[in-house]
Amino acid sequence: MNQIESVRPGEKPVAGLKTANWWHKRNGRVVCDLCPRHCALKEGGYGFCFVRQNVDGQLVLNTYGRSTGFCIDPVEKKPLNHFFPGTSVLSFGTAGCNLGCKFCQAWGITKSKKVLDRLSQQATPEMIAEAAVQLGCHSVAFTYNDPVIWAEYAIDTANECHERGLKTIAVTAGFICPEPRKAFFDVMDAANVDLKGFMEDFYQHFTLSHLEPVLDTLRWIKHESSVWLEITNLIIPNANDDLGEIRRMCQWIHKELGDDVPLHFSAFHPDYHMMDTPPTPPETLFQARDIAMEAGLNYVYIGNVFDPPRESTYCPNCGKMLIERRCYDLGVYELDRNHCRFCGQTIAGHFAERPGHWGTRREPVDPAALLRSMESDQRGAIGAG
Ligand code: SF4
Question: For residue 1, what pLDDT band results from cuts at 50, 70 and 90?
Fold first, then answer.
């Protein structure tokens, strides 16, 4: 891929523009083949996600190396409960989205093109990976907005992370075409995929996208890749909280993906275009969890509410608590690597000899400033020597 240095000859170099992959030309337009929307862009036009643009007859990504912010989070916040519990994750996102969720909880960065002017934190893939090492993070997560739309930036960063022994995590809605899907997930170690409902009507009306490509991504990740997969389902009152629909979704997960994929039911809070919808009653989450376990799923959690018994992990064989969670804090830990300490049952996931101790902290960081200050410290030390 080539770094584009200016929009047109003679113009000032523009940071953040990079020739995109996965597009073709048709009838004088550039057609993006990254997600099933297949936006056809005229000269100067933007895609639905507003971070992919037709510039001089080429598709470019306009947020390469530009972020809305970096934070160190606990891995449980992604949420991933079976991927090196207790470890810290350098998390970041950019701008835009290829879905149009009416309930978006990050609409400040996903839905307004104005955010492109506020992408203050500039960071190359090398800088991000290096900062993650210096900060002692176990993984880097592509999150906050859907990394599918900035796949080129995420892939380059993931490669830099792997060169330094870091793990990589994608938090995504999984609305992506097959060819880029392989390129994207080939460099991810874990993913949390948001399965937003189980009705095509819901997907069309509330997310302006479609269900089947997401189901296809889930099947592909589980059966064709080595990515560790967990699923999140946000339950919204009067939208996707029908218990029959939830039952069908859980039965589909069990049949198509197996009983070991962790499922997180998450509580909705009023936001964006759904301010008049009430928060999810905890009882709905409890019922959904019961339904999922009746369907045969081994690891079912609830999130966005404080409920340690339903946030914790239990052995599917002997029923003993193996990982106690209080929000993102770990308590009891009764795993011997991937095995239950009580009965020896194998527990699905990736577990180190000991859990991490990052806890509930959320620490904003600026990788560029961090690396600059380290360089100046080094120069100072050499000068003093
Ligand atoms: S990634 Fe963006 S530009 Fe490409 S098809 Fe999807 S919404 Fe359109």
Answer: very low
